[in-house]
Write a structure and sequence with these properties.
The chain has four domains: about 1-90, Rossmann fold (3-Layer(aba) Sandwich), CATH 3.40.50; about 120-205, 2-Layer Sandwich (Dna Ligase, domain 1), CATH 3.30.1490; about 210-335, ATP-grasp fold, B domain (D-amino Acid Aminotransferase, Chain A, domain 1), CATH 3.30.470; about 335-425, Aldehyde Oxidoreductase, domain 3 (Alpha-Beta Complex). Helices cover about 35% and strands about 25% of the residues. The chain has helices at about 15-20, 35-40, 50-60, 75-85, 95-100, 100-110, 140-160, 185-195, 255-270, 300-310, 315-325, 355-365, 410-425; strands at about 1-5, 25-30, 45, 65, 120, 170, 180-185, 200-205, 210-220, 225-235, 240-245, 275-285, 285-295, 335-340, 345, 375-380, 390, 405-410. An eight-stranded antiparallel β-sheet has the order 13-12-9-10-11-14-18-16. A hairpin with a 2-residue loop joins β9 (about 210-220) and β10.
């Protein structure tokens, strides 16, 4: 069997390797000849994956039997287009479009009563470089026209013709990774922000408060299976960038509520034969879907944290599914674990040794004759060095290269307390 993977970043390597372990020949497609995933595959094909027709032809030439699913953002639509054109199993272009277009996603869920907020889109699609099939670069005249339309949108909201409650969030319609986000709290903020983003497709929608959760799941034969529910620890608005995740036990009350909601959203969008990543906000009125995508989660989650917590390697099980072999996405148990990224700010004055970490974990675990509490260091990958100046975390790019650590303990609070103590080892 021959499998293809469209988008060969380093986050595709795990999926590629799991497929190869099962005897699959893997061909990777990417426009960047230096993409790390190209080196991991059996064959590398350099092709502009923003060009659907070129990618379809490249995959056709390689006689690919199915496409693997790996973390990818804006050009997930290319994967769907290839599947459609070559009649391959997996997501369709329509599925990908609904999930990568924030306004279309909102409209789809809102019409079904699954996302009840006000959300509006600016008009700049033909100039948007983050959109597959963009027509071109906006001229100064085009920018002025977009600015006028954005001002008209702002005035409609300010006048009350279009309803919007503050605070609101302004974010790229086709973007990812918490980039290009603005928080607006007043009419003046809104007017200024919409002028600033003229020429780029944006959505403006109401902000909600609540605890945020990440979902790793599969959708196979129309059945959604939650592999892992993760409680997020985020930076403050506007970015809400995750700096840590905690595994959530099935016995917790929030689990069943989010599980039911995710299944309804999946059915509404029409997803099937895919792995699934979703971000859900648990508000006072119930769960709210921030975003959802038919691909695995990035940031060392699908390839590391989720398998460690659940014993389920989603990439490996998906390959089994495509090969017609027995597979299962149901975890036998979920370990109480945390993955924490180095979200520090300041100058690093020391980098702890494993010996110091061991002593700290022993203390955090409350080790004494009368307690059985224990904190285990499961993994540690620190790229911080003495003298590094660390700036405020704003998005995934600003934190992922720093590294992470994974702990196992008794409960979330214990692990959070330990994380605060670990920070003190660097400053």
């Amino acid at each position: 069997m021959i499998a293809g993977v469209i988008g060969a970043s380093n986050e595709a390597i795990h999926t590629i390797e799991e497929a190869k372990k099962q005897g699959v020949r893997v061909i990777a497609f990417d426009g960047n000849p230096d993409a790390e995933g190209l080196k991991a595959a059996d064959k590398a094909v350099v092709v502009d994956i923003t060009n659907e027709e070129a990618t379809i032809e490249a995959v056709r030439q390689e006689k690919v039997d199915f496409l693997l699913t790996a973390p990818i953002g804006r050009y997930l639509t290319t994967t769907g287009a290839v599947n459609d054109a070559l009649h391959l199993p997996g997501i369709t272009k329509r599925m990908a479009q609904v999930c990568t277009d924030k306004y279309l996603f909102h409209e789809t869920l809102n019409s079904a009563g699954l996302r009840n907020i006000n959300c509006y889109a600016t008009d700049a699609e033909r100039f948007d470089s983050d959109r597959t099939g963009a027509e071109g670069v906006a001229t100064n005249k085009d920018i002025e026209e977009c600015k006028a339309r954005n001002e008209a949108l702002a005035k409609s909201i300010i006048s009350g013709e279009m309803a919007l409650q503050y605070p609101a969030i302004l974010k790229p319609r086709y973007g990812s990774g918490s980039r290009g986000i603005h928080i607006v709290s007043t009419n003046q903020d809104l007017l200024y922000a919409l002028r600033e983003v003229a020429g780029i497709s944006y959505v403006v929608e109401e902000c909600l408060e609540g605890e945020e959760y990440g979902v790793d799941a599969s959708v196979i034969d129309g059945r959604t299976t939650i592999v892992l529910l993760r409680h997020k620890k985020n930076t403050p608005m506007p970015n809400r960038q995750a700096v840590a995740y905690h595994s959530v036990q099935r016995s917790e009350k929030v689990y069943a509520c989010i599980e039911d909601y995710v299944r309804r959203v999946v059915a509404c969008v029409g997803l099937d034969e895919c792995l699934l990543h979703a971000d859900v906000l648990m508000t006072k009125d119930g769960p709210f879907m921030i975003e959802m995508s038919p691909r695995p989660s990035g940031h060392n989650l699908h390839n590391l944290f989720t398998p460690l917590c659940t014993g389920v390697d989603m990439a490996a099980e998906y390959v089994k599914r495509r090969l017609g072999r027995p597979f299962s996405f149901v975890p036998k148990a979920v370990r109480t674990m945390m993955i924490h990224y180095f979200d520090y700010t300041g100058v690093v004055v020391k980098v702890p040794s494993h010996a110091k970490l061991g002593v700290l974990l022993w203390k955090c675990g409350g080790h004494a004759m009368w307690t059985k509490s224990q904190i285990k260091l499961i993994d540690w990958k620190c790229r911080l060095r003495f003298g590094d100046t660390l700036h405020t975390v704003t998005d995934g790019h600003s934190i992922m290269d720093r590294g992470y650590y994974i702990l196992e303990g008794d409960n979330e609070q214990q692990l959070e307390d330990c994380a605060r103590s670990i920070r003190g080892l660097f400053f």
